[in-house]
Amino acid sequence: MTLSINCKDAGDPVCTHTMYGETEEELFENAKKHGIEVHGYTEESFNEEMSKNLEHFRKAIRST
Ligand SMILES: [Zn+2]
């Protein structure tokens, strides 16, 4: 089973990049890398954003 999340579903207005992971933890890590590289987050600001929007983020996760 592969978990995936689309950046747009996670709340970005324009980016449609999809991130993947075998586990939720791996998916979070990949999302963090993407957030830092593409959206200008720092590790701290991303973690803060993630803890605020965790429920929303979880609902946007798809499994295939
Ligand atoms: Zn993005």
Describe this protein's structure:
The chain has 64 residues and is α+β, with helices and mostly antiparallel strands. The chain has a domain of 39 residues. 50% of the residues lie in helices and 16% in strands. The chain has a 3-stranded antiparallel β-sheet with strand order 2-1-3, with helices on one face. It is globular, with a radius of gyration of 11 Å. The N and C termini lie close together (6 Å). Bound molecules: zinc ion. The site of zinc ion has 7 residues, from α1. InterPro entries: DUF1059. Pfam families: DUF1059. It comes from Candidatus Nitrosocosmicus franklandianus. This is DUF1059 domain-containing protein.
Question: How do you describe this structure in short?
Answer:
With about 60 residues, the chain is α+β, with helices and mostly antiparallel strands. The chain has a domain at about 20-60. Helix content is about 50%, strand content about 15%.
Give the biggest sheet. Answer: 3 strands, antiparallel
Task: Indicate the overall shape.
Answer: globular
- Please tell me how large the radius of gyration is: 11 Å
User: Which structural class do the helices and strands define?
Assistant: alpha+beta
